[in-house]
């Protein structure tokens, strides 16, 4: 069996579309047919090799998608053929299986425990969680990373309480969900900061009470005007820009929490004394999400009309145009989240 895949062959270069050969399943592995996938900033970072030389090239990418289970390997008990599943990078229930390798025209292609930039994927059992068969696959794809990370940041990392002020640096796919999650727990005010008015406009529709374009305004000064000179209770940094991280920390009040979601490419400098006096600076790993617990809860919220994910999706691309999608994200032409559709 063969399937089309977008392969990272060389760092900082476009992905190469080639067919991969699907090997037999091993213990704990699940074969899925991907319906649609999102693209996260983590994949951009992988392409750009921000953590250094990529020793796994060539390899597959992607960690948020909706799929249908085709086949299960020995030992798998949490899913069965025909199930609709969300694919996610956080560990969930089930076996932590070996990672697959695929044959292709560009040589042996490496893969992690989950990849979604391929029409068919072998994933570890603990990287898929079942959802209702009629659940919107585009909304499901966002639950693989963007939604679960953002809601986990608000609920688990920051522990936002009713009426606390929240500032969010970066109104992309994760940042917009942070805004929406903050609104759902009745934070106030909720301040969105970004370079693009189109993203800020969407943030306003999702619950942000104040919008700051940091290309046109002094973000730190504007935040302090809104929340007062002591700073915000919670500041979430999603961009990974070292200077923005420094600003986010500075505008967090003395007993507040700065939560870092974005991964910096260079060192940030902060004054650490406040950390000895109840100020918190914390890096987030997927919002401490437990997929098997949290994804079903978010599905229920969507079904009840309390969580709106459709308006987060602003761009659609066929799989063959995945490099165009990546280019548009880099250029800031994707206000919300983009969805890449596989062939039916």
Fraction in helix: 25-40%
Give the averaged pLDDT, no decimals.
Answer: 96
Task: Write down the secondary-structure element order.
Answer: EEEHEEEEEEHHEHEHEHEHEEHEHE
CATH top level of the largest domain is Alpha Beta
Sheet/helix structural class: alpha/beta
Number of helices: 9
- The structural domain count equals 2
Q: What this model shows, in words?
A:
With 344 residues, this protein is of the alpha/beta class. The protein has 2 domains: 2-136 and 309-341, Medium-chain alcohol dehydrogenases, catalytic domain (Quinone Oxidoreductase, Chain A, domain 1, Alpha-Beta Complex); 146-285, Rossmann fold (3-Layer(aba) Sandwich), CATH 3.40.50. The chain has 9 helices and 17 strands. A hairpin with a 6-residue loop joins strand 6 (101-102) and strand 7 (109-110). Helix 3 crosses helix 4 (173-184). The two termini are 17 Å apart. The model has no long low-confidence stretch (mean pLDDT 96).
């Amino acid at each position: 069996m063969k399937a089309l895949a977008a392969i990272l062959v060389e760092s900082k270069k476009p992905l190469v579309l080639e067919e991969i050969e699907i090997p037999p399943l091993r213990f704990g592995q699940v074969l899925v047919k991907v319906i649609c996938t999102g693209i996260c900033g983590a994949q951009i970072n992988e392409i750009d090799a921000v953590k250094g030389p990529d020793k796994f090239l060539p390899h597959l990418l992607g960690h948020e998608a909706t799929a249908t289970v085709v086949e299960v390997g020995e030992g798998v008990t949490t899913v069965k053929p025909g199930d609709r599943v969300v694919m996610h990078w956080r560990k969930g229930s089930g076996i932590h299986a070996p990672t697959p390798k695929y044959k292709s025209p560009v040589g042996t292609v490496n893969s992690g425990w989950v990849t979604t930039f391929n029409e068919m994927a072998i994933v570890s059992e603990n990287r898929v969680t079942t959802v209702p068969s009629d659940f919107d696959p585009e909304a499901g794809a966002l639950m693989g990373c963007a939604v679960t990370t953002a809601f986990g940041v608000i609920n688990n990392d920051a522990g936002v309480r009713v009426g606390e002020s929240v500032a969010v640096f970066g109104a992309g796919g994760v940042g917009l969900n942070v805004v929406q999650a903050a609104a759902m727990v009745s934070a106030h005010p909720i301040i969105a900061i970004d370079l693009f008015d189109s993203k800020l406009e969407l943030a306003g529709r999702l619950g942000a009470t104040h919008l700051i374009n940091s290309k046109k305004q002094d973000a730190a000064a504007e935040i302090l005007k809104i929340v007062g000179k002591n700073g915000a209770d919670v500041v979430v940094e999603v961009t990974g820009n070292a200077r923005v991280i420094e600003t986010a920390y500075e505008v967090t009040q003395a007993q507040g929490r700065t939560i870092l979601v974005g991964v910096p490419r260079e060192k940030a400098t902060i004054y650490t004394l406040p950390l000895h006096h109840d100020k918190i600076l914390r890096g987030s790993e997927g919002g401490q999400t437990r997929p098997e617990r949290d994804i079903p809860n978010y599905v229920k919220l969507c079904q009840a009309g309390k969580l709106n994910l459709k308006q987060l999706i602003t761009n659609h691309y066929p799989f063959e145009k995945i490099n165009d999608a990546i280019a548009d994200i880099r250029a800031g032409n994707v206000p919300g989240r983009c969805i890449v559709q596989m062939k039916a």
